[in-house]
Amino acid sequence: MGLYQSDWSKAPPHVHAYQAKTNVVEGHYHLIEGFSQPENGSNMDRHTHYYTGITSFENGHFHRYYGISGPAIPRSDGTHYHEIKETTYLAYNQPIEIQYGGVVYDPRNNGRKTHRHEMKGRTREIVGNEPLGW
To answer: Is the predicted pLDDT of residue 3 greater than 50, yes or no?
Structure first.
């Protein structure tokens, strides 16, 4: 049942680790991993989680992403997971040369070509909830 056997009938606050991989655009893809925001919920109440972050740094750039997971999907062991599906924000096709490094994206610069990626994955283990009787 995992490290912490929560009483899901009490809808405890918890977060999930997640992983995803983007589709290939402009000859590259990005990896995404992180932790969702805390939410009170059970394995049967269809709660969702907010998640946000930046992708892996590939091809001279990264993308920001924000999303809300799908509803809780029960597992046979009494836990649950969530599906995540989102589109990253824009980044330039060709990175900008900056003297001291970093990534700059200016949405007012309409002359530079941009791209975004589709990402799809699911949450993994539940993190941050307390054991029964805590």
So the answer is: no
